[in-house]
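Practice problem: predict the structure.
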Amino acid sequence: MASRRPNLTGFDPRKFAAAAGQPANDPWARAEAWRYTGPFTRGARFRGSFPGLGIATVAFAGYLVYEQLFMPSAHHHEEGHGDGHH
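Answer:
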């Protein structure tokens, strides 16, 4: 491993960051707490991104079931296709 150059000022940013850490009493903690509670939680923000997706998915699935069970299939049209058909 290469040797690090000596710092002329004697200031080590790694030691400074380790010593700083998190403050024991953050004055902004209460002001920032609302961002992560109630309607602003990660899950609530995601649910609000697609407001009608759940209802639309259920409606589409219901339509597909209805189509399979009650609508006649349109794939039985081969009897009209013969040699005389142009």
